[in-house]
Structure formats: structure tokens, C-alpha cells
Amino acid sequence: MSSTHPEVPGEPTKTGTAFLETATATIQSFAPINQIHQHLCAFHFYSYDMTRQVEAHHYCAHQNEEMRQCLIYDSPDADARLIGLEYVISEPLFLTLPDDEKRLWHSHEYEVKSGLLFMPGVPGPIERQDMEKLAKTYGKVFHFWQVDRKDNLPLGIPQVMMAFTRDGQIYEDLVKDVEDRYGISVAKERENRAYISGSTHGIHPLANGGGKGLKTELREVDCKAPDSVPRVFV
Amino acid sequence: MASSDKTPTSALPMGGDPRPPGQPMTVEQHMIDKGAQILQSLKPVKQMSQHACTFALYSHDMTRQIETHHYITRLNEDFLQCAVYDTDHAHGRLIGIEYMISERIFEALPPDEQKLWHSHAYEIKSGLWVNPRVPGILEKPELEKLVKTYGKFWCTWQVDRGDRLPLGAPALMMSPQPVNLGQVSPDLVRMRDNKYNISTEALRESRVELLEPEPINSQADYWKHHGKGFAIGIKVTDIKLRAPFP
């Protein structure tokens, strides 16, 4: 398991370290991780800048039928960088969110129907069973590592990401690259998914940033200076 | 708009139930999952090799402290990435991501970036950071490395304030420190220790000789020297488009 990542700074993992980690992996319980059953490949863009687009590999676990939590990596490989996370919820759950919160979530209908969102290695008929559900869901994504600007470390503050919502937004060569690597045809899959319907109530007008961009900013806030706090704990 | 230090109003009932709202998984979904699991390789996730249980504090309100479960992948000798959950049970909620870097890499960061990071020396030496079920002797070589690292931890689901779904902006977290604001509530530690039948006290004694960074960079643990925490706000802005949206 020792590795050199081509872009993350640092020495390759030494043999001693790798051995230890194999040992701990067999002794410990990885229960939340063992719930991760699914790999989905999709694309995100920075919510304030559609010209910056990223391929995003999602590794998803269900909390229940209506909620998933996903780790997002920049590739499906062993040395993939953990760049963010996504939460996916059903339409009924989405409708319970306060309005300000709804803006942070994006619809999945177009991603599914266009064929852009797919499950590598899974045959169409099985994949489509899940796509039927996903088409009606909303997602919330934060990225912490801006790999598209060639950062070799997770610098800066979290970024709200959005998903594509209509033709003409995604870069053709981003799609072609994935098609070539996985031997798939997005256009063909779009035809196969023509029967899939989106959310019952239609895409909510506040979702997808309400059509606006969302920019995160860092604020310093006061916290009590250590000396001014009476000693509470012995 | 949203801000990590403001409590959102929520239509959902707050508090109590650690499980998010929603119907239980259907048989059909289980079968889709099973199928995917057999056919897909899930390689990045299989690289996680360590589980650590520790504590973190919200940088904008250090009286709020949580027990965390880190599932850790080492990318190389100087860099680790962690998926963070609120428990090590199957229904654990994914509450954030932490990155850990060596002293060497940290020292090369610009000061404005450094202030978002926290040191691990006290957290580890005090026995707060544990690898459940791993014998001390196996743990030692790894801790010798980790004790010198710095971490950056974004929490995206504030479960301790009763959020049943992940609301708002990510919050920057800080690590336990040996001064007042940074000390973890003994009750929280006791609950953790009972769960794993361990003693944080005893671990502290066994870790006394671990070498910390000399000195710990004063940009890290920013609140200690500057009395300031951080909050992330989200504001509405124009989008740089290349096609109509949405």
C-alpha cells in the first residue's frame, strides 16, 4: 500500500508505516465505511463560476431510503484525493428545508436524464433502477480541494458546488474524456433514460442557488481570550 | 445568507434522534446496492487503513465539543486524508473531512492558510486521540509521526446542535489544547472511555515521551494567540456563465 502520489507533496510512504496500517485495518471496525456500496461518476462546477468544472467520483452510503452521504474523490484510483462530500436527499425531505437552505442544494434531474451521471461497471438496467430514484433527489456538495486550479494541497475555504441543469453547460471534452475511459456513450444512455421522470413538484425555484451563484467567505469572530475564562476544568 | 456560526431555523423537529428523517431502505434499494458492490471496485475507499476516535471543538464556539471518528487514508509519508463520522456504528453520520499534513509541509504554507490549521501534539499526548482496539505497541510508531502533524477539519453537519439534516455552511474545527478554552469536558471523555473500556489518563502516561514540533507554529490554533475563531458565510453573487442557468 506504499505509494507516491504524483501531485500531493511529500515523501513516499515508508514500508514500516504501510505495515502498521495493514495491521490496524484488520483489527478495527470500519462500520460506517462498510456502508459505502456505490460508486457514481458525475461532474460539478463552482457555484459562482460555471467555467470551472470538475469530474467527481462519488462513493455513497445510504442513511435510509431518502438520504445518502457520499465521499467525493478526484479519481477512482487508489491514490485518489478526497476533495469533498455530497449529501443526497429525496424531494419530500428537500421540501422541509428552510428557504435559505434550499439554495445550497441542486437538482439531479438533468444529470440523470442527460446520461452524465453514471455508475461505472454497472449494467444499464440495474443502473437505471437507481437513476429513477436519483432523478427526483437534491444534492448538497462542498469541495475542499481545488484540484482544477492545480492546488496540490487542500488550500483555502470550502466551495459550494453545483450540478449541470441543461445542455450546453458542460465542456464537450470533459464528457468525451470520460466516455473514452469508460467505453460508454452518454448520448446513448440519454435515449435509454428518456422514460425517467423528475421530481413530482418540478425543480424547486430556490434550488440550484435560485439561479444565482454562491460564494463562501471567511470571517474572524471573537472568542474569549483564554485567560479571561475562569478555570472550569481541573 | 447561511453562516456556519448561526443556528438555522428548521421545519424539521430538532434534537434527540441521531438518525436522519426518511423511510427505511427498501428491499429494492438493498438489491441495487448489493449489485453495485459486487460489480464496482470502490478502490479509494479501500485505502482507508486506520480508525481514530478523538475530540474536536467548533472554532466559532469552543464550548461546543464533539467526539469524532476519523477513517484515515495515508497518501504519502507527509499527507493523510480523513472521512469523519459522529460514531463508529454502521449508521454513523458523515460530519466532515479532515486533512493532516507533516510539520515540513505546514511550515511551507502562507500564514493566511496556516491559521485555518490546528496542531495535534496535545491531542495525541494527552491520550484524547485513540485508535480503538489497537494495542499500544502497534500504535506507537504511527503516533510518533502524527504527533508532529497539523490538521484542517471542516464540519458539514452540526449534529450536536440537533440538526437532523446537514444544514448551513461548513464550520472550521479546532483541536483540544492544554489551555482553558481548548480543554475537553471530562464527561465527554469519560463517556468515550467507558465505551471502549480504556483510560485516557493511562494513555497520557504512556505517551509522555512523544516528541512534539519545537515550537508549535503560532499561526496554528489561531484562537490561542489571537483570541479569534472563524466562521464561513455564504453570500449570493453573480455566476460567471458559459450557458444559461439553471
Automatic annotation (TrEMBL), chain A:
<dbReference type="InterPro" id="IPR010686">
    <property type="entry name" value="OBAP-like"/>
</dbReference>
<dbReference type="Pfam" id="PF06884">
    <property type="entry name" value="DUF1264"/>
</dbReference>
<comment type="similarity">
    <text>Belongs to the OBAP family.</text>
</comment>
<protein>
    <recommendedName>
        <fullName>Oil body-associated protein 1A-like</fullName>
    </recommendedName>
</protein>
Automatic annotation (TrEMBL), chain B:
<dbReference type="Pfam" id="PF06884">
    <property type="entry name" value="DUF1264"/>
</dbReference>
<feature type="region of interest" description="Disordered">
    <location>
        <begin position="1"/>
        <end position="24"/>
    </location>
</feature>
<comment type="similarity">
    <text>Belongs to the OBAP family.</text>
</comment>
<feature type="compositionally biased region" description="Polar residues">
    <location>
        <begin position="1"/>
        <end position="10"/>
    </location>
</feature>
<protein>
    <recommendedName>
        <fullName>Oil body-associated protein 2A-like</fullName>
    </recommendedName>
</protein>
<dbReference type="InterPro" id="IPR010686">
    <property type="entry name" value="OBAP-like"/>
</dbReference>
